[in-house]
Amino acid sequence: MFKRILVANRGEIALRVIRSCAEMGIESVAVYSEADHNALHIVHANFAECLPGNTPAETYLNMTRLIDACMKYKVDALHPGYGFLAENADFAQLCQDNNVVFIGPSPQSMRDLGNKLKAKEIARAAGVPIVPGTEGAVPDAAAAEAFAREHGLPLIFKAAAGGGGRGMRVVRKLEDIPRFFSACQNEARGAFGSDEIFIERYIENPKHIEFQILADHFGNCVHLFERDCSIQRRHQKLIEEAPSPALTPELRAEMGEVAVKLAKAAGYSNAGTVEFLLDGTGKYYFMEMNTRLQVEHPVTEMITYVDLVRAQIHAASGEALYLKQKDLKLRGWAIEVRINAEDPLKGFIPALGRINRFIPPAGGGVRLDSCAYEGYAIPPYYDSMVGKLITFGRDRTRAIQKMRRALDEFILTGVRTTIPFHRYVFDHPVFVSGNYHTGFVEEHFSDAQVTSMLRSKSEHANQEHIALAAALQYYIERTDLVTSNRAQDHEASHRWQLVHRLNSSSFLPS
Amino acid sequence: MKIVTTINDETFAVELRVDPERERMFIATLGDREVLLEMIERKPGSMTLAIDNQVGFYEFHYDKGQVNEVMYGNRSYKAYLRNPQQEQLERLLEQFGAGVGGSASDTLVIAPMPGKILGVNIKPGDKVEFGRIILILEAMKMENEISSTVEGVIKNVKVKVGDTVNTGDVLVEIHPPG
Known about the structure:
The complex is a heterodimer of chains A (510) and B (178).
Chain A: E1 4-7, H1 11-24, E2 27-33, H2 40-44, E3 47-51, H3 63-72, E4 77-79, H4 89-97, E5 101-102, H5 107-114, H6 116-125, H7 141-151, E6 155-159, E7 169-171, H8 177-192, E8 197-201, E9 207-215, E10 221-233, E11 236-242, H9 249-265, E12 270-278, E13 284-290, H10 297-304, H11 308-316, E14 333-340, E15 342-343, E16 349-350, E17 357-359, E18 366-370, E19 385-393, H12 396-409, E20 411-413, H13 419-425, H14 429-433, H15 440-444, H16 447-454, H17 457-477
Parallel strand pairs in A: 1-2, 1-4, 2-3, 4-5
Antiparallel strand pairs in A: 6-7, 6-8, 9-10, 9-12, 10-11, 11-14, 12-13, 14-19, 15-16, 17-20, 18-19
Helix pairs in contact in A: 4-5, 7-8, 12-13
Chain B: E1 2-7, E2 10-18, E3 25-30, E4 33-43, E5 46-51, E6 54-63, E7 66-72, E8 75-82, H1 84-95, E9 107-110, E10 115-120, E11 127-128, E12 133-139, E13 142-147, E14 152-157, E15 164-165, E16 170-175
């Protein structure tokens, strides 16, 4: 087993990995940028190395610096977390070349599965259902129309070299094809320097279902059931749950088997996630495979009692998988919400700043994976996620009840977060029914719906209290209230500051 | 004091007074109801308050010296406060050309009680924000922190450490920003 692991990441995931290391008796080395000098993961690691600079390129993406740190601290292995270099095959190779075990799959399977067309090829060869579409690029609008007549509408045009939704066009009418085709081509050429277009059938309002898999170096592979990640905003997941309310036991078993089949076909080892789209009729299609630990891995941990980071470390150290598929049982229900420093009432714009008050929820069935604390200033260089709140219970209803309670308990001031959005979702009948899909935010979180939420009855009661508090603040600031100011009572809670204003001139708005 | 408070889109007319019987208690009139407010803790820009025995933590954010946002629990609320009597006074002053209107007027920090200056934390030209402790005044063997009630630039410091001051003495002049 490893003696020392370097964690090449920051924030809650660095802390998450460091925690498992501590439990296993493995020493951890944290790295941090200058902006992260006050980060919590440094506190809990055994060693910490500063990566000079602030931008990701200078720090958490800086392969040379990271390898240098590995050498300096003589680590046996490196855990990449998620994001940053977690899916960079060249970095995994570089670790290997320097005799540092990269805790993840081999560079080759990262390369194979990281390429969209190659991944589809592996899936097709393994008999895994994929979204019907053209195998290669489509030469012109006429060919696109021929495909549409053969396979039906709606379709989606995608840039072969693309990503992040650039160039994509959803085609619902045949007459739109020439116009959309050239628009997609133009955008693709501008953004990616290639105007190669391919076509897929467009899955209307799908569910995003992904299967967690674990594999060792000996060809053993199991799945740890699914996660439903259909509450998204612009392809960014906001809420995840396990299991999915949409899957029957039969479908779960079938999709799990398919996920394992794909991982085996790709010669995969370590933890990975096979993502599927599930349409309204129960048909599913392979989308892609993520060759890393996912942000939302805790929900799987809660329902399987498997520590995924620990399992990753065991697999990377060359041990055979101790888990057998028949021993894995679903226990209860877990839901995770992402606490991002974003203002959900203003289109989710980033809301950075300092956390003034931080009293997180606790109690039965609550787990918080977070890097935040009272007084923590969120640095502007990285992701806006400050934590993940997970609740779990015997069934979905209990997990939801616990989440409502935990969100209500959560006191976090100074920065605006996604907590009010989550509170809204957990009261929404569509979410509560379980019958929701990836269009939820667009359909149910419009400006008008946000406004009506702000005008709700419970909100009125809140606003009354807030009005009273604000009025009191105004009153005290504008009156000569001098109260007990005992010098020896400096930190005492009842000490008030002295406030004084001379005359009306200072009342005037400037 | 009557204070018209708008939170998000809803307006509340609040009348506030100190409870003469009990320390740290205030009585608010809201519509036809009387509500008891107990100040549990107060810091610059925030307070812990029990409203009808329900304890909450309220944080205030300012724009140009005015509360414009309140954070409560994990939510943020737009706020706008005004005092009609005050506005009337301002209008009168403007009419009679009293010359106090507009942003040019300085805020005077005055001694709230007689005492001795123990500490001066600022000098002319310093930028101060709302709530910054600018002076320490010893009175009745107690140290009292005097904080800025506005955001601005220190224009004039009229006292130094060791000075004895009387109630109403001007201690510091603060020039509004901009």
